[in-house]
Amino acid sequence: MINKIKPINEKNTVDENIDLINNFKKELEISEEKIKETILNQNKEIFKIQNRLNSEVEKYQQFSIEKLIIEFLPIIDNIERAFNLMQQKKEKVYIKILKNIEYVLSLIKTMLNAFKVSKINDVKVIFDPNIHQAISIRYNNEIESNRVLEVMQSGYTYHSRLLRPAMVVVSTNKVNYS
Length: 178
Known about the structure:
This protein is an alpha+beta fold and about 180 residues long. It has 3 helices and 6 strands. It has a 3-stranded antiparallel sheet with strand order 1-4-5. Helix 2 packs antiparallel against helix 3 (about 90-115). The termini are far apart. Belongs to the GrpE family. Essential component of the PAM complex, a complex required for the translocation of transit peptide-containing proteins from the inner membrane into the mitochondrial matrix in an ATP-dependent manner. It is found in: Cytoplasm; Mitochondrion matrix.
């Protein structure tokens, strides 16, 4: 973009030299603007890359223990089943075991809460295929159709990401063909 400019020499007139200097100044200003624009664009790109990397690191940190939690869920299920069975019997032999299991469950629940793991086990809520897996349908005219009647196995989410759907029994109203 630099114009062909005659070199300054003694043969040039004063006006030609002033024109030449003004042209150099304009070229310098244009070059400075281009440099500023290039630096600004590079800074924008660097900012975008930093944001993307920070997002990736945050995602990795959030979900790095996901596999561990998924493997841990069947242990929780079995402890809960044993606890529920022992609660029904309530004999003196079971009371100490029941208290120990209850303590272990409370430790597990505390750990899950610390890692932002949420349990899906609500009943009488609307069946949601995004978080529930229907394993059975039960006729029930006392409760609205398409509601969770019973949770057979709890589901879990981790930072709002589904780890495992809740296995549920869903209500449906019995149709009378009278």
